[in-house]
Amino acid sequence: MMRHIFSGVLLMTGLAGCAGRREFRDGQWRAYLERKDGNNVVFNFDVKDSAGRKVLYMRNAGERVEVDSISMSRDSVFIRMPFFESQLRGALTADGNIEGVWIIHLADSFRAMPFKAFYGEDYRFKTDSSMRFASAEGRWAAVFRSSNGKDTVFRVGEFMQKGPEVIGTFLDAGGDLRYLQGIMDVDTLRLSTFDGSTHAYYFTAVRRGDSLVGGKYYAGPVNYSTWTAVKDSAAHLEDEYAITKWKKDVPFGFSFKDLDGHTVSFGDDRFKGKVLLVQIMGSWCPNCLDETRFLSKFYDEYHNKGVEIVSLAYERSTDFDRSANAVRLFQTGFDVKYPMLITGVTVGDPQKASKTLPQLDDIANFPTTIFVNKKGQIEKIHTGFSGPGTGEHYDEQKKEFYDEVNGLLAEK
User: Fold this and answer.
1) Nearest to 182 by CA among 203, 198, 197, 208
2) Is the pTM value of this prediction over 0.85?
3) 379 pLDDT more than 80
4) Taking CA 311 as the corner, what is the angle to CA 307 and CA 315, rounded to the nearest 5 degrees?
5) Which of 171, 246, 251, 401 is the right S-S partner for 156, CB 3.0 to 4.6 Å?
């Protein structure tokens, strides 16, 4: 399948080259990842010239992700995402648009979706603003069911609406589904997001009374779930500090290599007598990206007060060099000054906790943050991270982190 997709891109590139070089134009673009069932994942980006180079900005609601790794060969465009092992490859067409594929690297394979991008289009979904439209504003208690109906996930939807335009997110045990953007098309909610990683989502549902019904959640090339939601201002998730359990009779510790191959261990002098935050993360995880951005700034503020941070990365591959290169994108992108370590155990390993952090009963979600006191004992474990797309939840969570660390620093 991948061979046919790449052959198609090369064919388009060759044909385009015969017609003379075409321009990747500055301005606004509307794009979508094509699913075979027609439920395409729509997203928007802007292109600008910066010091003689092309720079692209991925747009999802309030987020603008700068992408500056863009190259061209004849009439082909290659766009590499800044933090994730993924890229967009396409050929400029005669009408100035782009056709190609989105490619994301998995553990030992690739996932690919055809994509198209259209120059000069700034909308995400079309709607007739003169029509009356329902409201998605507020908080919603949502239940998602897998396509086979066996697995159930509870999420809390929070949306803001201005006219037909809707932005918001779903909160869950991992933190949130990040920045969602779309419309209320009369009585039908349509939301999407694409951040270059695993978050390639399209949501739809119909407003009926105080409910959203007939919901579909399309993820990536083929996955989908059904969902329903009831408006509920009191909807909430399980306490993030109660999800991950640990064994108090098992000593806490770790010992892994950093990105340069040097071993870093819990027993090192740099951690003795310090408050320590241990971030369980992966470079494939957008919520981990949000937390790393926060923790890097937090470390700059609190390091001289007696706080250390270390990240433990669970990647898609056990190959050290590949994993280190992926995590280094986070390190350089957010100017991370604390150690980022490669566990050598994959995110999909069902025994990842017992192999790396045997004091934990399980690693329930990514990211997970362990708060360790000055005596080297676990005080609390926070599961998930609600990023800036969650608004006040993000602010509340940051305050909780500050309060917890200040409390641990005050202990004798």
Assistant:
1) 203
2) yes
3) yes
4) 175
5) 171
* Confidence band of 20 (pLDDT split at 50, 70, 90): low
What H or E segment, with its residue span, contains residue 30? strand 27-33
In angstroms, the CA 366 to CA 350 distance is: 14
In the chain, ranges of CATH 3.40.30.10 domains: 255-410
CA distance 134 to 184: 7
In this predicted model, what pLDDT tens digit does every residue of 60-98 receive, in sequence order?
Answer: 999 999 999 999 998 999 999 988 889 999 999 999 999
Burial 156-193 (b: 16+ CB within 10 A, else e): bbbbebeebbbbbbbbbebbbbbbbbbbbbeebbbbbb
Strand partners, 199: none
DSSP letter string, 173-237: TTEE---EEEEEETTEEEEEEE-SSS-EEEEEEEEETTEEEEEEEEETTTEEEEEEEEE-TT--P
Most confident among 15-24, 77-86, 140-149, 224-233 (mean pLDDT): 224-233
Two tokens, residue 365: 């979600």
Residues 6+ apart with CB under 8 A from 4: none
Half-sphere exposure of 326 (CA within 13 A, CB side): 28
CA distance 104 to 12: 20
CA atoms within 13 A on the CB side of 228: 7
CATH number of 138-231: 2.40.128.120
Residue % of the chain over a pLDDT of 90: 84
Q: Which amino acid is at 323?
A: S
Q: How far apart are CA 283 and CA 195, in angstroms?
A: 13
| pLDDT, tens only, 335-346 | 999 999 999 999
Residue 314's nearest CA partner among 367, 267, 263 is 367
pLDDT of residue 107: 67
Q: DSSP secondary-structure letter at 242?
A: S
Q: What is the pLDDT of residues 257-293, one digit of tens each?
A: 999 999 999 999 999 999 999 999 999 999 999 999 9
**Nearest alpha-carbon partner for 313 in 373, 254, 372:** 254
The class that CATH gives domain 2-119 is mainly beta
Regarding the domain delimited by 255-410, which CATH topology (the fold level of the hierarchy) does it fall under?
Glutaredoxin (3.40.30)
Determine how many CB atoms are found less than 10 A away from the CB of residue 270.
Answer: 12
